[in-house]
Amino acid sequence: MPENEIYRKHIFICTNQRAPDAPRRSCGEAHGMEIVDAFKKKLKELRLPYPIRAQRAGCLDICDFGQTVAIYPEGVFYVGVELSDVDEIISEHILNDRPVERLRFRRKK
User: Fold this and answer.
1) HEC profile of 41-107
2) Which one, 23, 46, 81, 100, has least CB within 10 Å?
3) Domain limits of the chain?
């Protein structure tokens, strides 16, 4: 790990909560904190020899596509993330540097 790096990977999970009558969806409504807790629990169980941080985040501004998770330093955004996707994201992206393409957000051209 480079000397100036704090975390090898940093996982941001949207937990933004909009008002019930807001015109746009909100990730917080789609169990954001459950997903944060699942990432933290699994990462703790793995006892990795390098630091990975998972934390809640405010709006990542693509809630219309479903629950959003962003992973840095790569800048990969996942959408429509369910609790059942956490293990796959960790095993593929976090441990093996292979983004989970089926969940990856891609802007339409």
Assistant:
1) HHHHHHCCCCCEEEEEECCCCCHHHCCCEEEECCCEEECCCCHHHHHHHHHHHHHHCCCCHHHECCC
2) 23
3) 9-103
